């Protein structure tokens, strides 16, 4: 409110001066020089120029040019996925070298039987194993209807199974049969033996008494319906002797 009052007083003084000036022009004014007007509010002298006038208003600075918006970066093109490498084809395994057996008698066969035991000496109550091996060693024709016969002496008992019925007397090929003291193995005609084939027969026995002089030999023989050029090696035998200890 104070500012407004001072402003009104200053305005009234200006009106009075204006009226007196007009009257002076008409002959009614006082010859006395009016006192100079003072502004209603002080003005700092530094704002005036040397001639007492206010300096010109500085030109308004033009507004800064608006910054141009940055162009958006173009998105990078996605890299093309690498094509998966084709898996290398596995190398075919090399066929194992086949055993090559040359036959001296292409139209014949030569079967051999051999006998071995798992112990050199035994006594009553012992168990041991008899191994009979039948091998096709020469010839070229198929060995048809092969049969192996084992004659076990009476002082030995054939043990066919253990306490949990695992076979203790068996063959690697063919059909095995036990009758009394005879163990036989037969190979069907549809599965003939060929050159290089081997059949192993395992017979487990138990010594139940001491061998006698006329019943102390174990025999094994092999036969075939094909023509065997050496029948002398179709029979094998083991003789047991009493050491007297």
- What would CATH call the class of the domain at 109-239? Mainly Beta
| First-residue to last-residue Cα separation | 151 Å
- Architecture per CATH nomenclature, i.e. the level-2 architecture of the domain at 109-239: Sandwich
Radius of gyration computed on alpha carbons: 67 Å
Helix content: under 10%
Shape annotation: elongated
CATH-defined topology of the domain at 109-239: Immunoglobulin-like
What is this structure's SSE topology?
Blueprint: H1 2-25, E1 109-117, E2 127-139, E3 147-151, E4 156-159, E5 170-171, E6 175-179, E7 182-186, E8 198-207, E9 217-223, E10 235-239
Antiparallel strand pairs: 1-2, 2-8, 3-7, 3-9, 4-8, 5-8, 6-7, 9-10
Outline of the structure:
The chain is mostly beta strands.
Question: What does this protein look like?
Answer:
This protein has 245 residues and is mostly beta strands. It has a domain at 109-239: Immunoglobulin-like, CATH 2.60.40. The chain is built from one helix and ten strands, in the order αββββββββββ. It has one helix at residues 2-25; strands at residues 109-117, 127-139, 147-151, 156-159, 170-171, 175-179, 182-186, 198-207, 217-223, 235-239. Strands 1, 2, 4, 5 and 8 form a five-stranded antiparallel β-sheet that branches. A five-stranded antiparallel β-sheet has the order 6-7-3-9-10, with no helix packed on it. A hairpin with a 2-residue loop joins β6 and β7. The longest helix has 24 residues, at 2-25. The chain is elongated, with a radius of gyration of 67 Å. Mean pLDDT is 77; it is low at 1-12, 26-32 and 95-100.
């Amino acid at each position: 409110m104070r500012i407004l009052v001072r402003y009104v007083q200053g305005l009234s003084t200006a009106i009075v001066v204006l009226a007196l000036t007009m009257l002076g022009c008409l002959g009614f004014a006082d010859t006395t020089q009016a006192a100079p007007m003072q502004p209603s509010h002080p003005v700092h002298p530094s704002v005036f120029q040397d001639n007492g006038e206010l300096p010109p208003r500085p030109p308004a600075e033009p507004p800064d040019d608006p910054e141009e918006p940055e162009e958006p970066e173009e998105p990078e093109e996605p890299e093309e996925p690498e094509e998966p490498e084709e898996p290398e084809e596995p190398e075919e395994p090399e066929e194992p070298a086949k055993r090559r057996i040359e036959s001296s008698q292409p139209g014949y066969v030569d079967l051999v039987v051999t006998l071995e035991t798992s112990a050199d000496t035994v006594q009553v109550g012992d168990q041991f194993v008899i191994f009979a091996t039948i091998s096709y060693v020469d010839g070229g024709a198929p060995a048809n209807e092969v049969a192996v016969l084992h004659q076990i002496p009476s002082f030995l008992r054939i043990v066919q199974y253990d306490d949990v019925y695992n076979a203790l007397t068996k063959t690697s090929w063919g059909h095995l049969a036990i009758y009394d003291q005879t163990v036989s193995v037969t190979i069907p005609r549809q599965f003939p033996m060929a050159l290089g084939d081997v059949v192993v027969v395992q017979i487990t026995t138990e010594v139940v008494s001491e061998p006698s002089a006329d019943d102390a030999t174990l025999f094994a023989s092999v036969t075939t319906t094909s023509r065997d050029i050496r029948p002398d090696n179709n029979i094998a035998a083991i003789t047991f002797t009493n050491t007297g200890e």
